[in-house]
Amino acid sequence: MENLDVVVLRTLQGWRAAGRRALLATVVRTWGSSPRPVGSIMALCEDGAVVGSVSGGCIEDDLIDRHTRAYAQAAAATNDGAHSIPSGPPSFVKYGISADEAHRFGLPCGGTLELLLEYDPDPTLLAALIAQLAAGRLMQRTVRLADGAVTLAPTQAPEELAVDAVQLTNTFGPEYRMLLIGAGQLAEYLATMALFNGFAVTVCDPREEYRGSWSVAGATVVSDMPDDVVLAFKPDRRSCVVALTHDPKLDDLALLEALNTEAFYVGGIGSRRNNEARRARMIEHFDQTEASLARLRGPIGIYIGSKTPPEIAVSVMAEILAVKNGVTLPRDMEVAQAKNERELAHNDPGARVCGVG
Question: Where is the XdhC Rossmann domain (predicted)?
Answer without folding.
Answer: 178-320
